[in-house]
Amino acid sequence: MAQNNNMEEHFDAAAATWDDQGKIRRAEDFAKSITDFLKPAGKMKGFEFGCGTGLLGYSMRNNFSHLTMADNSEGMLAVLKEKIDREQISNMTPLHIDLLEEDPPKEKYDAIFTMMTMHHVMDIGKILDVFNSMLNEGGYVCIGDLDKEDGSFHGHMKDFNGHKGFDRQELGSTLDHHGFELVHYSIPHEITREKEGTTKKYPLFLMIGKKK
Question: For the domain that residue 118 is a member of, what is the CATH number?
């Protein structure tokens, strides 16, 4: 769900080799944290914003009655569609859409979740308003993303112009201002990278807001 053509091209190009063991484990960690809190029990309808190849939704497919998997990268969605067709998954529907530019689906959802996508979205308030409009009363938004960092996480991407992670208090306040009560915060996963003989750790948080 990047906001410029360069980022869309980057994700399209990366789609075929995106699913490595590190990303799979990350998705599984977030999926467990989300389902442990929400306890959907196969009764909730979910929507994933910036689903990519569908790793997070795939890990939760047996916990939700249906999942709409949305992204604006055709390349990423093509990989997801292959998984759905190959495994004949009946409760996951891919959707090519840019929620910052297009009208959202008319259907209402019980939960919206997103993992490692929000730092690519410059107008956080705008997308939270869209999420709020898409949720049933008492629905949840589950945001998994980078804790505040020094900018080195995307240092290899020359065209990156997003957020250098998020401050917990600032994002919690933004949620509150856009119609959500903060109900959960945790660190389900950590990325470790080696560079020039040094080890750098990047905590990834899960923040869940409930629609007021």
Answer: 3.40.50.150
pLDDT per position as a tens digit, 55-82: 999 999 999 999 999 999 999 999 999 9
Q: Do the Cβ atoms of 1 and 50 come closer than 8 Å? A: yes
**95 Cβ contact list (under 8 Å, min separation 6):** 68, 69, 70, 71, 105
- For 169, the token pair is 């208090």
Concatenating the DSSP letter of every residue in 71-82 gives ES-HHHHHHHHH
The token pair that represents 60 in the structure block = 């939760």
Distance separating alpha carbons of residues 124 and 145, to the nearest angstrom: 13
**Residue partners of 179: CB distance under 8 A and separation at least 6:** 128, 129, 132, 211, 212
| pLDDT tens per residue across span 112-123 | 999 999 999 999
Distance of alpha carbon 179 from alpha carbon 211, whole angstroms? 6
Contact 117, 56 (CB under 8 A): no
- Point out which residues pair with 194 in neighbouring strands: 199
- What φ, ψ does residue 67 adopt, rounded to 5°? -125, 125
Domain that holds residue 106: 5-211
Tokens of 40: 């959907």
Per the structure, how many domains does the chain have?
1
Task: Report the C-alpha gap between 98 and 1 in whole angstroms.
Answer: 7
